[in-house]
Amino acid sequence: xxxxxxxxxxxxxxxxxxxxxxxxxxxxxxxxxxxxxxxxxxxxxxxxxxxxxxxxxxxxxxxxxxxxxxxxxxxxxxxxxxxxxxxxxxxxxxxxxxxxxxx
Amino acid sequence: xxxxxxxxxxxxxxxxxxxxxxxxxxxxxxxxxxxxxxxxxxxxxxxxxxxxxxxxxxxxxxxxxxxxxxxxxxxxxxxxxxxxxxxxxxxxxxxxxxxxxxxxxxxxxxxxxxxxxxxxxxxxxxxxxxxxxxxxxxxxxxxxxxxxxxxxxxxxxxxxxxxxxxxxxxxxxxxxxxxxxxxxxxxxxxxxxxxxxxxxxxxxxxxxxxxxxxxxxxxxxxxxxxxxxxxxxxxxxxxxxxx
Lengths: 103, 243
Description:
The complex is a heterodimer. Chain A is an all-alpha fold. Helix content of chain A is about 80%, strand content about 0%. Chain A has one domain. Chain A has helices at about 5-25, 35-50, 55-60, 65-80, 85-100. Chain A is flat, with a radius of gyration of 20 Å. In chain B, α1 packs parallel to α3. The model of chain B has no long low-confidence stretch (mean pLDDT about 85). Helices cover about 75% and strands about 0% of the residues of chain B. By secondary structure, chain B is an all-alpha fold. Chain B has 2 domains: about 1-170, no CATH class; about 185-243. The chains are: A mainly alpha, B mainly alpha. At the A-B interface, α1, α2, α3, α4 and α5 of A face α1, α2, α3, α4 and α5 of B.
């Protein structure tokens, strides 16, 4: 069975929803096991770090622009800037850098 | 109480703006791919509202182009989105126990790398309205970006798409760097995450390991690094809340 785009979309939607919702609805209380608690505490940091690099350098037309955005983003975040300022600063760095790099 | 909820909703919408910017750029390129698979703008819009998962939707579009069997697409979607299973588990520990089933389903539906990231970055128990605020701003942008990409593939200059595409990563940095500054284990994990992600990506390319996709690398490295850190540096009781 294959070929209907609407059915493809439905299949994807059902699987995506199940993956996202099942743990949240099935795990009701606090997990007591210290290892699992610690593991879940560390999960977001590792996941986001792994997704950020080297992807940020590969997303831009010029890798140098991406690397500059990474450096500026890390410095601003280190200084305590919020989500929006850091995100916008990274975009601007890439835009300006590529004016010169990809002229 | 009502005021608190309003504030959470508004803050969610504010934090949804950088997500929406990044989403628009990524969804736009997704739309261009969808056009190649013969999707209509409406189909792209619906697919993105229901799935809002970049790698998952790319996999879907690839399957449509190949006229793959439905069960195969179900399996691919499961694999590319498996990291959401981990995220949903992590979120479950940050919910107030009395949170209703509907809020669990609502927040769960919104789990993406970015919305999960901003939701976890807030201290204390998860506030569903905050997450809904972020979803309300970012998911329509994701869906509109997909539809526009299908209709008007090459309207945006490549340089603008290139600049917008780093918004998401900038946001990730703003989420992981401040806690890394306070906690050495988190700092080491962020550094190791960067290094191993780079290394494993190179390895996959060098040995042309097609199965070792970006999504699979995320799951593998998360299990390994977060697992290792949990074994070596277990978190003290009650410390999880103050991130």
